[in-house]
Amino acid sequence: MRITLLSAFLVGASAFAVPASAQNVDSKTLIVQSTIPSYCSELGMQDETLDLGNLTGTTGQLVTEFAQNDTLTLETGFYCNAPSTVKIVAEPLRHDTVTTVADFTSFTNRVDYTASLKWNDQDLPVVSTDSDGAEFNITQANIGDMELKISDPTVADNLRPIAGGYAGLVRLTISLAQ
Predict the structure, then answer these.
(1) Strand duo 160-161 + 107-108: pairing
(2) What is the pTM of this model?
(3) Which of 47, 77, 98, 167 is the most exposed place for a label (fewest CB within 10 A)?
(4) Separation CA 6–CA 94 (nearest Å)
């Protein structure tokens, strides 16, 4: 009888010692999701003035390069986390008070130039002779310092600029691509 009892005990114990690989296991994979909206940081700059210096040399002819202050850092670390559009309009330098030049075959009240925006790896130039400016499509997210450079002063037909103050504007608009 002792043998029978021991056998019954061993059979009962083996029922509790089931290997882990034989257990019934259930699993489920859950998908977690979220969204990130398109965003461009705001241009935090205030209106700035670049004094380009004397526009003519000793002969009264237009200089080939601006004398001073032709570069301005606009923003540091500006970014768009999605494709964006950059529009730049450069208005020519025009005489402050003289709107009509009497001898228009020799003199002018307008000086044109190139305005180039450098934004990280993008170099975006526009000339002031293009009244509509230029629009650039930035196809990927972009981040970096923005620097504006004014260069290449020119006048039509090699005319001489009349004496006085000159002023122009550069308008910069950055928006998320549509």
Answers:
(1) parallel
(2) 0.79
(3) 47
(4) 112
